[in-house]
Amino acid sequence: MTQLVSAKQGRITHEMEKVASKEQVDIQALMESVACGQVVIPANPRHVNLEPEGFGKGLKTKVNANIGISMEFKEREPELEKLKAAVEAGAHAVMDLSTGPYINEIRREIIKSSPVPVGTVPVYQVAVSARQEYGSVTAVPEENFLKVIEEQAKEGVDFMTVHCGITLESLERLKEQDRVLPLVSRGGAIMAAWMIRHGKENPYFRYYDQLLELALEYDVTLSLGDGFRPGCVSDATDRPQIQELLILGELVDRAREKGVQVMVEGPGHVPLDQIAANVQLQKRICREAPFYVLGPLVTDIAPGYDHIVSAIGGTVAAAAGADFLCYVTPAEHLGLPDAQDVREGVMASRIAAHAADLVKGVKGAAEKDLSMAKARRDLDWETQFSLAIDPVKAKAVWERKNPEKKETCSMCGEYCALRVVEDHLK
Length: 426
Description:
9% strand, TIM Barrel, 10 strands
């Protein structure tokens, strides 16, 4: 029985209790949010060591970290180090985006080791297997698409990105659009190439009812992927993107009717002035389904600093109502991230999430900032470190810049504004 079905029947699950406790929200209100689809709790019962998280309206904005091997970097141990780095940095979920030769093995190890929800993009496994068996990523028989979904569900994957909105109709719209970057989604590109080669409808769309049956059986949360997401700011909010969103909105309704949890993925590169409109449009069309956004990235010219670009866009998106931020690392557009890139990406996205939660009025967000302000007033360094998003870095910087560990920092010293006026204000 899925979390959604349980909530519709008025039954509070163990996972709902855990989430309500973490979020400090009323359990009855949470159950009602799950029942109407505004909140999802990705929790495959086969993921045995999971600490559940909630994603959606009224909850803290969450952060996802992408990890996974590639054809160039095939070793599994570094990916487990990245998983550890992501969790220690405070990521609320991880996605295994592996495309290398040991894709099945690394996924199983990640699920076994991860205390946070694990997501995948099943079409990657479809493509890797097709390349190994048939010599081409698009040569795969259509029945393999659902077969892989079931395999991963049995292993304990909590949520899956499925590119159901790329249809023969929406593909024609893409061809007519004259985009700068036609397709930047790997999963979307694989689906589009398969459809063109075989002249058939997208199997995830054509067999959506069977897909829902599998998701229902294993309580896999579907993350409806944005295969036509813009890959540069010039392509943002165009017809293919919106056409896909309209399709996804209809698929949200069908998933909820079946009792399947569902969220919707959002655009990548979007100029600052279009972000809020994109979020509002998604929320309206998809009936307040949780919105999972990549970034968004607000400019294309900052390779090496795209974690900062993403944090700017993520703050605006989350403040406008996005619920789940997919991190971007400094290695974005340049190469596979390492553990340090993962840590920096998670921290940047967590800053964005918290800044947005202050705007949303999420419980506990403003209180934490107020506590930090009071600790700074009192020059209480240990409390400041404990409240910091990255306590380790905050303390390390302070100790390096203040070797004598004086009460005031080395920036102001005896001219500390707080100390200069302290006696006079009293």
